[in-house]
Amino acid sequence: MSQQITTLTFFKYPTLQQKLWAFLMMQFAHAPLKKVEGLQFYKLLGSGKENFDPKPDWGVYGLLQVWNNEASAKDFFEDSKLYKRYQDNSDQQLTFYMKSIKAHGQWSKQNPFETSDSLDENNPYISVITRATIKLLMLKKFWDYVPTSQLDLVDNPSLLFTAGVGERPVTQMATFSLWEDARALKKFAYRGQNHRHAVQQTQALQWYKEEMFTRFQPFKITGQWSGFEIPPSLIRDEQ
Q: In sequence order, which ranges of 121-225 are alpha helices (DSSP H)?
């Protein structure tokens, strides 16, 4: 029985000194992360500007982690010297705790997400991570089309949180989104004209050389983030 969970943490760095520290940690955090007990998979993520602009946002970074169980994650966030450094050098942190519903595709030639057998049928929220490595010859065509593909997301009342992230600017991108429920996500995916056309373009042009689509059930969110209010049912008191 799998007890695996996934966490995705966002950090906000307002000052130049903080931004420089965060940029350097994209290289220097690998060594300590590889030694974290109970950590199965991780990705250090930069972010793009709003509306999935490929230009980097030097003030926001992310850390995706896949854990053996929630206890391993709790040990890291409470006791890790590395995470303490991230806290000390950033002004805001926001962590999503999630259980995998379904994952299709590969990330760095593997699928690290195990389908959870402990999903809560009374929890309506759903989060999505999509990521892809874009073929070099398709970069311009892809990024020229991105603004159109995202029109259905603008002012969508069922979309609670979204961010564009990536391992490398321009070529390796990912999106994270939090939705009110599966019905809202399905409406966006299958009824949104611009999104449906984007899927058709992807199939026709084959502009990815590796891609992954993963749905999660978020069961806890901790921290704070400007402009985002954590749904009350996803606030958990720590024991």
A: 139-149, 182-191, 193-205
The answer to whether residue 185 scores a pLDDT higher than 90 is: no
Does 70 reside within a domain? yes
Closest to 6 (Cα-Cα) out of 32, 38, 53: 38
Asked whether residue 73 is domain-assigned, the answer is: yes
Whole-model pTM?
Answer: 0.88
Nearest 5°: the CA angle 113, 116, 117 is 155
Confidence band, pLDDT 50/70/90 cuts, at residue 161: very high
Band (238; pLDDT cuts 50, 70, 90): low
CATH number at residue 46: 3.30.70.100
Taking each helix axis from N to C end, the angle separating 182-191 and 193-205, rounded to the nearest 10 degrees, works out to 60
Q: What span, in angstroms and rounded, lies between the C-alpha atoms of 175 and 45?
A: 11
Question: What distance lies between CA 113 and its chain's CA centroid?
Answer: 13
Does residue 147 fall inside a structural domain? no
Q: Is 17 helix (H, G, I), strand (E, B) or coil?
A: helix
Q: Which residue has the tokens 């009342």?
A: 157
Residues contacting residue 169 through CB under 8 Å, at least 6 positions apart: 46, 48, 54, 55, 56
- Are the CB atoms for 190 and 182 separated by under 8 Å? no
- Residue owning tokens 């206890």: 71
**Tokens encoding 8:** 């995705």
β partners of residue 134: 208
Residues 6+ apart with CB under 8 A from 197: 148, 149
Six-digit token pair at 108? Answer: 């760095």
Residue 45 CA to residue 61 CA, distance in Å, equals 6
Question: Based on the structure, what is the number of domains in the chain?
Answer: 1
